[in-house]
Automatic annotation (TrEMBL):
Keywords: Coiled coil, Endoplasmic reticulum, Membrane, Mitochondrion. The keyword Endoplasmic reticulum applies. This is Protein SERAC1. It comes from Araneus ventricosus. It comes from the Eukaryota. The lineage of its organism: Eukaryota, Metazoa, Ecdysozoa, Arthropoda, Chelicerata.
Length: 884
């Protein structure tokens, strides 16, 4: 159903006839995503009655083929730029046209003024009348900028889907992201209504015509530049408050009308499109059970349309489950880093299904049926939407591509153009094209392997060269030392001072060469260690990989981003050298009491299947153990022991993630508990952590703190100390803090400390526990100073609190109550988990993780051209380092 002018009544009649006569129905995913989005943009612009399309079109034709007018415009302008051609039916080209119009609009106004005053020849054409009327509008530049802002948001989607790639599995997610970004950017809906659109199903059911969902007009955002232009015009009294409100009302209606039209025939309203995401390689990795459920829905749909027999359903589901368990897990990194913007899904999946075609034959047939539905998301010139050169018949996608290639080859020949295209011709071209694609993939793999081998060869050659140089220096040192000793002995016998001088010169040479020798030995040792550390850095056990990655980062002093990571400070991202000039922000993680980098920030334990041999219940002894599950044993490759490193780094590839460790204990009976109470105080711990973080250049860029439990108190202490510090570098930590996230932080103390205080001689509470007393004056004072600091600097705060009791020893209790975990500033969410689990999201779809990502998106400054290519880059670098 390709195109917005499809006769839906005819389609329904055809479906009924096929069902009644042949027990068969057509698979439909609605109108082409490109066309429907183009038309939605058109309807949105038309609803405002701004006539931007007429203005941009007239602007081009006014000076097209009119040398005299072009010369007059050039005399008035400092540049030689002219309007670009605008095509009402090709809205993909909106951005450059609108940008050029804004760039030269001041010159256009001068031209109109000169014509109207008689200084330039009179122009009476329709195009000039439209431009002259637009030039008199007070807010025309703001309207053009808003039009440009919307066009820029649509551009990436239109470019991506202007392709012959099979993109249906990604269509629902990409459209949802586009709509959500537009709603949040332009603020056309009320905040609470917008938050309800948190899934594709909620988007499909949302009513964009209900006025109760609309935001107040004065809260609608136009664009960054548009808002600034409005401020200037209001300051100069060039626009009244009524003019501004009318403009914002039009902008609101532009977006809402566009989204309303989009959702009327949007492909994501079809269940088969929403469920097609089960063939997204990333979702196969992170949400295998959800993929199985989606495939089951697809099979039900196909059975209902009589496309497959119902008896095949169970077999296909079992094949998919086996594919997820065996193939996807074995190629975890490939599926995890798949990028549909760069790679073809059909080529990617085929290389895995083709390993055992017979085993997955029926499943692969379903995959092909779904991927073929993508043929409508294509370019007009090169695709299959309005291409009259192609025959109108039911061809598979590869057949369409082959036919297009044959037609283009015939045109290139330039002779006979009406050659009948046979099935044999298409099959021949299909085979050739597949061989070409396979060859490209093979060349890509060979290139990566060659780079790895070359790098290893260079390193080996460098080590060999250093070893040869070391051998020569050792020989020179040995000979020089022997000669020096011989000259000394001879000088003593002959009483000749010149011999002593020669001996001293040789000893000086020995000293210099010994220094060179020592440097070479250190260099050789370092280069050998790089290989070992690179191997360890890829270990699935983060107790091994994180220290190894930190050591590599400390050794890499040539890196533009080089920082020193002291003991207890771990780099979570990036784990490889990047070419980017600067990170956009630092995200610092600080654990709580008895926590650590290696276990505090893991995924929720309910998502991990432990074997009985290695399972350990938390708090199963009289005194609580550390917040850790020993051994990191897990039979699922989808489970993460560090979600900031594995999840958040993909969402924020341009930020640096650092985790800080510090020692804590709950009882003085612990043999490893520090005895110096001064070192255990919040002030001392905060100073200790701050000094280590300063060595890692924390404070040089925007900072977001993510803390759990006692870690939040430490960060509050760090910020209040930094704010009061007279040292510039320390003070920058406070100045550059742009956000804080608290997970179950006892701002007003914890009842756990009260339990320990009730039997102090038995439990011997440590200084850490004594500082957490409920209602502690020190904590309350710190909290008041912190709130003043946050309000003065307008820093956003996001907090989560527990609502379930935690098991400690033989009892269960609320460790941090809601009145203590709610700081009374910023956003607060109560989560139905215990104390240890508030900072352990179940998945990337959990409320804790999604709110964290939303918060970071609002806080962290991100340029418009930042694209998330970290996964692909990490894969490439990992392949290059694979020889270690």
């Amino acid at each position: 159903m390709d195109g917005p002018f499809v006769n839906w009544k005819f389609y329904e009649l055809l479906q009924n006839d096929l069902k009644n006569q042949h027990n068969f129905q057509i698979l439909c995913i609605g109108s082409c995503g490109l066309h429907i989005l183009n038309n939605s943009f058109k309807h949105g612009e038309k609803a405002t009655n701004w006539k931007i399309n007429s203005i941009l079109s007239s602007l081009y034709w006014l000076f097209k083929d009119a040398p005299a007018r072009r010369e007059d415009l050039m005399k008035l302008s400092s540049s030689e730029k002219f309007p670009l051609k605008f095509c009402c039916h090709r809205w993909l080209e909106n951005v450059p046209c609108a940008e050029r119009a804004l760039e030269i609009w001041a010159d256009i106004c001068k031209y109109v003024s000169k014509v109207d005053s008689g200084a330039l020849p009179k122009v009476t054409c329709k195009s000039y009348c439209i431009i002259a009327q637009a030039a008199k509008e007070k807010l025309i530049t703001v309207k053009l900028d808003f039009f440009l802002s919307v066009a820029k948001m649509l551009q990436p989607f239109l470019v991506l889907y202007q392709s012959d790639k099979p993109l249906v599995p990604f269509l629902a997610g990409d459209l949802f992201t586009l709509v959500k970004n537009m709603l949040e950017h332009f603020k056309v809906l009320k905040h609470d209504k917008c938050k309800r659109i948190d899934s594709i199903s909620s988007l499909c059911s949302f009513d964009f015509t209900d006025v109760t969902n609309f935001n107040c007009i004065d809260k609608v955002s136009i664009s960054f530049i548009g808002d600034e232009l409005l401020k200037k015009k209001r300051a100069k009294k060039e626009a009244s408050d009524k003019d501004v409100l009318d403009l914002k009302r039009d902008c609101q209606w532009f977006i809402l009308r566009m989204l309303q039209t989009l959702m009327e025939k949007c492909p994501i309203s079809y269940s088969i499109v929403r469920n097609a995401s089960c063939f997204d390689p990333n979702k196969m990795v992170f949400h295998p059970m959800r993929c199985l459920k989606s495939l089951k829905n697809i099979l039900s749909y196909l059975v209902d349309k009589s496309r497959i027999p119902s008896k095949d359903g169970d077999e296909i589901l079992l094949q998919f489950k086996e594919f997820l368990d065996k193939v996807v897990k074995c190629s975890f990194s490939d599926f995890k880093t798949f990028d549909h913007k760069e790679q073809r899904l059909d080529t990617f999946l085929y290389q895995y299904f083709s390993v055992d075609k017979e085993k997955y034959r029926k499943l692969w047939d379903i995959v092909k049926r779904i991927l073929i539905l993508s043929h409508g998301q294509a370019t007009v010139e090169r695709g299959f939407s309005l291409n009259k050169a192609l025959e109108v018949e039911n061809l598979k996608e590869n057949s369409y591509i082959a036919q297009r290639m044959i037609i283009e080859a015939i045109k290139e020949a330039g002779d006979v153009l009406d050659i009948p295209i046979t099935k044999e011709m298409r099959i021949s071209v299909q085979c050739a094209r597949q061989q070409y694609l396979d060859c490209l993939e093979c060349q890509k793999r060979e290139k990566i392997e060659e780079q790895s081998n070359n790098k290893r060869k260079l390193l080996v050659e460098e080590i060999d060269f250093l070893q040869a140089k070391r051998k020569c220096l050792e020989e020179d040192v040995k000979n020089a030392r022997q000669s020096s000793d011989a000259l000394t002995d001879e000088g003593e016998k002959k009483k000749d001072i010149s011999l002593f001088l020669k001996s001293n010169a040789l000893r000086k040479e020995v000293t210099e060469k010994s220094s060179q020798l020592k440097s070479i030995e250190e260099n050789i040792s370092k280069k050998r260690w790089i290989g070992i550390l690179a191997l360890w850095s890829k270990s699935p056990c983060i107790e091994v990989s994180l220290p190894a990655s930190k050591a590599l980062a400390n050794l890499d002093k040539d890196d533009f981003h080089h920082s020193f990571y002291d003991s207890g400070i771990y780099l979570l991202h990036p784990l490889i050298r990047t070419r980017k000039k600067e990170f956009c922000a630092d995200i610092v993680f600080v654990h709580g009491l008895l926590g650590a980098t290696f276990w505090t920030w893991r995924q929720h334990d309910s998502m991990k299947n432990f074997s009985d041999e290695h399972k350990q219940e938390e708090g199963n002894l009289n005194l609580p153990k550390r917040d850790v599950l020993k051994g990191n044993y897990c039979n699922s490759p989808f489970y993460t022991f560090c979600w900031p490193k594995d999840w958040l780094a993909i969402d924020f590839p341009d930020a640096r993630f650092i985790s800080a460790d510090y020692s804590t204990c709950i009882s003085k009976w612990k043999t490893n508990c520090p005895e110096q109470e001064e070192k255990d105080s919040l002030d001392a711990k905060a100073k200790y952590l701050m000094d280590k973080l300063l060595l890692s250049n924390i404070g040089e860029r925007p900072i977001v703190w993510i803390t759990h439990s006692m870690g939040g108190l430490l960060v509050k202490q760090i910020l209040t100390q930094a704010a009061a510090s007279t040292e510039k570098k320390t003070n920058l930590i406070a100045q550059n803090t742009i956000g804080l996230i608290f997970f179950s932080v006892p701002h007003k103390g914890s009842d756990l400390a009260k339990l320990f205080q009730s039997v102090p001689y038995i439990l011997q509470p440590s200084t850490d526990m004594e500082q957490l007393q409920k209602g502690s004056l020190k904590l309350l004072s710190l909290h008041e100073r912190f709130k003043s600091f946050v309000r003065e600097n307008n820093i956003p705060v996001l907090s989560f609190g527990e609502t379930k009791k935690s098991r400690w020893g033989l009892t269960s209790s609320m460790l941090v109550t809601e009145d203590s975990s709610d700081p009374g500033i910023g956003e607060y969410y109560a989560v139905p988990v215990d104390h240890l689990s508030t900072c352990k999201p179940e998945s990337t779809d959990s409320i804790v993780y999604t709110k964290t990502v939303e918060f970071l998106n609002c806080c962290i400054p991100r340029s418009s051209d930042m694209v998330q290519k970290y996964s692909k880059l990490e894969l490439e670098i990992s392949n290059i380092l694979c020889f270690f």
